[in-house]
Amino acid sequence: FSGPFTDVVTTNLKLRNPSDRKVCFKVKTTAPRRYCVRPNSGIIDPGSSVIVSVMLQPFDYDPNEKSKHKFMVQTTYAPPNITDMEAVWKEAKPDELMDSKLRCVFEMPNENDKLNDIDASKSAPVLNTSKQDGPMPKPHSVSLNDTETRKLVEECKRLQAEILKLTDENRHLRDEGLRLRKVAHSDKSGSPTALALRDNGSNSLPSLLVVIAAIFIGFFLGKFIL
Asked: Which residues belong to any copy of the MSP domain (predicted)?
């Protein structure tokens, strides 16, 4: 079964009778509530074949969870003048029954499958049900990636604006610090007021540089994590 599994996914089984007698068949599954099988039983004429549609119901797909679902196609030769299918299976002996077991596999299509599906849809407008169920919801996943990219670009722009703002403030404070140092040097008397202003100007620069460094580190870390 090819995902995504947000809608019903259908896979067809082709059952062929290579013998010269009529054959009764019945399809069983270990998860009857998850699948709808049409037809789930019947008779196949000699040399003929029957298409059985297996419809998987929507569910939350987990790629880490291994599928344990299995199907079994059970067959037996049809008795002459058959009238009751249930009686055939109840009266059949174990050595008269034949069966084939199938294990379910869930797969999500990759990018190459998407391109192949697009090319196939252009060359062949009529597709069977199993191929239609796969690629239909794919545009939704593309729009989701675009949304995440847009958010990342906006976050980068916001961080760049913050960096420019802090750079301007740092330049202003640096100029102010230079001016205060000049005032301090020109003040030969060494008054306490001049010394206090000089200390404030020099102390503000290291703290601002620490803030800018923290923003750069957060920006790069966030970029690598995303």
From this structure: 1-107
